[in-house]
Amino acid sequence: MNIEDIEITTEKERGIRQKLVEWCKTHLTDKQFTLILSFFVGLFAAIAAFILHWIIKQIELLLTEGFDKDNLNLLYLVYPVIGIYLTSLFVRHIVKDNISHGITRILYAISGNRSKLKGHNCWSSVIASAITIGFGGSVGAEAPIVLTGSAIGSNLGQMFKMDNKTLMLLVGCGAAAAIAGVFKAPIAGLVFTLEVLMIDLTMASLLPILISGVTATCFTYIFSNGDSLFRFHLDGTWMMERVPAYILLGVFGGIISLYFIRTMNACEGIFGRLKERPYARLMLGGVLLSTLILFFPSLYGEGYSSINILLNGKTEADWETILNNSMFAGHGNMLILYIIMVLFTKVVATSATNGGGGCGGTFAPSLFMGAFGGFLFARVWNMHGIGVYIPEKNFVMLGMAAVMAGVMHAPLTGIFLIAEITGGYQQFIPLMIVCICSYLTIIIFEPHGIYGMRLAREGKLITHHTDHAALTLMSLDSVIDRHFTSVRPDTELGMLIHSISKSRTDLLPVLDKDNNFMGEIDISKLRHIVFRTELYHKFKVAQLMSQPPCKLGVNDSMRKIMKQFEKTNAMMLPVMDNDNRLIGYVNRIHLYGVYRQIVADLSAE
Q: What is the average pLDDT across 336-359?
C-alpha cells in the first residue's frame, strides 16, 4: 500500500465517521447519544481489563512454568528487573510519552486539557503494566486500567465531537467502568468518580456512569467467572463491644496511609533526580526491588495471593504459609516480625518498581498494606488481651478499607469497594467506622489524597466547590485576546491617531524596538487633545502613555487573575510572558462571560 492509498483510506474513514456523527445528531438527542456512548465505554473498558489480566497471567505462566513454588528460585529476583527494563524501553522508544501516575494524569487532563487524553493511552498503559506486573513488579494493574478506561471515554467523545462537559462525563464513565471491570464492583466505580475524579453526580451524569459500571461488570463476569476478587467468609457478625477496636484500627489505617504517601513522595524525589539517567534509575530500582523480594517474597507481584491467605486463614498453620519461600519459613514465632517488615517495605518496593522504569498503580499496594496492617492490629490486640476478641480475618478486610480510604482520601470508595470485592456486606457499619476514622486521621497531616496532591500544589485540582472548579477548568490561553495594535514610544501624536483608528480596543500597548512592554495608551484619556491638530507634532507616545493597574503573568492562576480584576476594577489587563513581552490582553467582560458559561455547564442537569 502506497501513501496515496493510505490517504484515500483515511479520507474514507473520515467521511464515514462524519456521516455517522450527522446521523446520530439528527436521530438522537444529546442525552440518548451519551447513554449509548457510556455503554460502549463500559464494554471497551471491560475488554481492556480482561486483556490486561490475561496478558499478565500468560507472562506469569510462561516465566514460572516448572518452578517449585515452595522454594525460592533465583529467577524470581531477576524477573522484576527484566520487566522494569522492558517496560522502560517500551515507554521510551514506542510510546514516547509519560504514562506513569495514571489517575493523576486523568486529573491533569480534566483540569488542564479539557478532558482530552491522547489516543495511545487507550492501549499503552495496558501493555506497559502487563509487562511490569507479569514479570513480578510490586505494583497494581488498577491505575493503568483506569487511565485506559478514561482514555477510551475521552477518545470516543472526541471522535463524535462531544462538548467539554460531555467529554468530562465520558472520562468519568471510563474510570468507573475500569474500577467496576477490574474489581466487579459497579458501586465502587460510581463513588470513585465522585470522590477521586471529583465529577459531580447530577441526575444527568448518574445514569451514564451507572450504565458504564454495570456494563463493565456484566461483561467481566461473562469473560471470567463469577467469583469475587478475594475469597472471604465472615467470621461472626459485628458487635458493639468491638467499636473501640474499629475506631483504633481506623486511626492506625490513617497512620499507615500517611506513611504510604510520605514514603512514596520521598522515593519519587530520589528517582526524580535520576530522570535524565534511565540506566541509573533501573540499577537503583532493580537492586532495591530484588533485595526486598529476596528477604520478603510476599512483595513479588500484586500480592493478592498473600491477601487471600490472611483473609481465609483459620489456624496458625494457615497464616504461617505466608512465610513460605522466605528465610522466616518454618519459624511461626516470627510471623509478626515478618508482617511488620513487609508492611514497612511494600511502599518502597512499589516506588522502586515505578521509579526504575516500570508502570503500575497504588491501588493494589494500598490494599496489600491495609490487609497486613489489619492483621497486625488484630493479632497484637488479641495477644495482649486489650479488649474483647476480634477476628483477624475480619480486621484484614477492614484494614484494606481503612488504608485505601486514607491513601486516596476516599472513604466511600473504601467502604463500597471492599464490601463488593470481598462480599462482606454485613460489615458495612465497621467499614464505615474504620474508613471515617482513617480519613479524619490522614487529613490532619495531608489535605489531599495521593492522586490529587500534585495538582493541588499547582492549584489545578478540581473540587466539588463550583466556583473553584470553574476557575480550574478555565484556561488563561482561552481568554487572551492576542490581536492588538501596538505603537512605539517615539511615535508622534499625529501618527498615533492613525493607529487609534485601526485599533479594536481602547488600549494600545507601547512596545520598544525589542518588543518589550513600556506602557499603554488609554484612548479615553486623550479626548482633550486628540482633535487639536496643532499638538500632533508636539507630543509623543512616551509622554502620553501610562502604566496599567497591574500586569498578569502567563503562569498566573485564574483565581489570581479574577482577584486582580476585582482589586483594580480594570476593564482590560495585559498578559506578559517571563521576558516582559506582551502576549495579549484579557477583557473583563469576556472573562466573566466564560466563567458564567462554565458555572452554568457545571450546574446544569
A: 92
Say how many Å lie between the first and final Cα of the chain, rounded. Answer: 49
- Residue 313 predicted with pLDDT over 90: no
Instruction: Please answer whether residues 442 and 257 qualify as being in contact, where contact means their C-beta atoms are separated by less than 8 angstroms.
Output: yes
Three cell numbers written together for 102: 495514571
Question: How many Cα atoms sit within 13 Å of 33 on the Cβ side?
Answer: 20
**Digit-coded pLDDT (tens) for 395-406:** 999 999 999 999
Amino acid at 476: L
Answer for the pair 103, 196: CB distance below 8 angstroms, yes or no.
Answer: yes
Q: What CA–CA distance (Å, rounded) separates 83 from 77?
A: 11
Half-sphere exposure of 460 (CA within 13 A, CB side): 19
Amino acid at 172: G
605 contacts: CB under 8 Å, gap ≥ 6:
202, 203, 204
Structure-model confidence comparison of residues 533 and 602, the more confident one:
533
Among residues 378, 403, 452, 399, which one has the least CA distance to residue 101?
452
- Residue 543's Cβ-side half-sphere holds a number of Cα atoms within 13 Å equal to 11
Task: Give the span between the Cα atoms of 65 and 85, in whole angstroms.
Answer: 22
Q: By percentage, how much of the chain surpasses pLDDT 90?
A: 29
Distance of alpha carbon 457 from its chain centroid, rounded? 14
Rounded CA-CA distance 470/600 in Å is 9
